[in-house]
Write a structure and sequence with these properties.
Number of domains: 1
Structural class: alpha/beta
Radius of gyration: 22 Å
Order of helices and strands: HHEEHEHEHEHEHEH
CATH topology: Glycerol-3-phosphate (1)-acyltransferase
Distance between the termini: 46 Å
Strand order of the largest sheet: 1-7-6-2-5-3-4
CATH architecture: 3-Layer(aba) Sandwich
Helix content: 40-55%
Shape: globular
Largest sheet: 7 strands, mixed
Strand content: 5-15%
Length: 269
């Protein structure tokens, strides 16, 4: 048999085998992701219900936030997701901060809950208020809803965030406004920074890397991987006025971008 005839007779079989293996792999991932989606929904419904009950009985938000940090969030990272945190020594865990982070994926939220051992509230888009369980939890915890494109409502959100900071809670914002589709750090919106200035608390830049690979935007297709989170040096707000919020946002954006670039440099050979 000639080499040419052998090659043309064997390759189609190899291609069929490779195609069959690829289809089986895709099917197994689809089944695994369906199980993960069901687990995520049931796990979240369970612990949100418990948190709401605890809040109703104690009239305090602290215990329910601790449940989110110690039980709910770590439980969503069990599917071969490794979380690496650095820079925690830069912050004083006994005082409130406005944390500002780049946003790569929905899984950023449980990663941040797990990484930051403080009473942490999020600034969330108003649409989430309509999501069963999640919306109830956000409202019960006193988290801050943001109205996009509504200036008067936006000012009320800033005032509410400043009030939470003054009460001793830390608040986390994603100033990009939405998840990054390309993994890069995008322009920070400045409105939320007025809350830190009003409350007189420092702003802590937080860089996330790897979350977009673990849970890419669009659909629910988790994959094993590592999420890395780095806390930067707090940026003081003492002496700043509300009009300084744009400059404060720029400084925070540059700090997050530098931290993110440093993590990417570590990955390069």
């Amino acid at each position: 048999m000639s080499d040419l005839h052998y090659a043309t007779s064997v390759r189609p079989r190899e291609d069929r085998r490779a195609g069959g293996a690829g289809r089986w792999t895709a099917l197994l991932w689809a089944l695994a992701n369906a199980f993960q989606a069901l687990y995520t929904a049931l796990w979240s419904a369970l612990w949100i219900s418990i948190a709401l009950l605890v809040t109703a009985l104690t009239w305090r938000r602290g215990p329910a936030l601790a449940l989110a940090r110690r039980v709910w969030a770590p439980g969503l990272l069990i599917f071969r997701t490794r979380l690496e945190v650095s820079g925690r020594e830069r912050i004083d865990l006994s005082r409130p901060y406005l944390f500002v982070a780049n946003h790569q994926s929905w899984i950023d939220i449980p990663a941040l809950f797990t990484a930051l051992p403080v009473p942490l509230l999020f600034m969330a888009k108003r649409e989430l208020a309509r999501v069963p369980f999640l919306g109830w939890y956000i409202q019960a915890m006193g988290m801050v809803f943001i109205e996009r494109g509504a200036r008067q409502a936006g000012a009320a959100s800033v005032g509410q965030a400043a009030e939470r900071l003054s009460q001793g809670f830390s608040v986390l914002s994603f100033p990009e406004g939405t998840r990054s589709r390309d993994g890069r750090v995008h322009r920070f919106k400045s409105a939320g920074f007025a809350a830190a200035i009003q409350a007189g608390v420092p702003v802590v830049p937080v860089a996330l890397e790897g979350a977009g690979g673990v849970l890419p935007p669009g659909g629910f297709r988790p994959r094993p991987g590592t999420i890395r989170l780095t806390l930067g040096t707090p940026i003081p707000t003492a002496g700043l006025r509300r009009d300084d919020r744009a400059d404060l946002a720029r400084r925070a954006e540059e700090a997050v971008a530098d931290l993110h670039a440093a993590m990417q440099d570590q990955d390069r050979p």
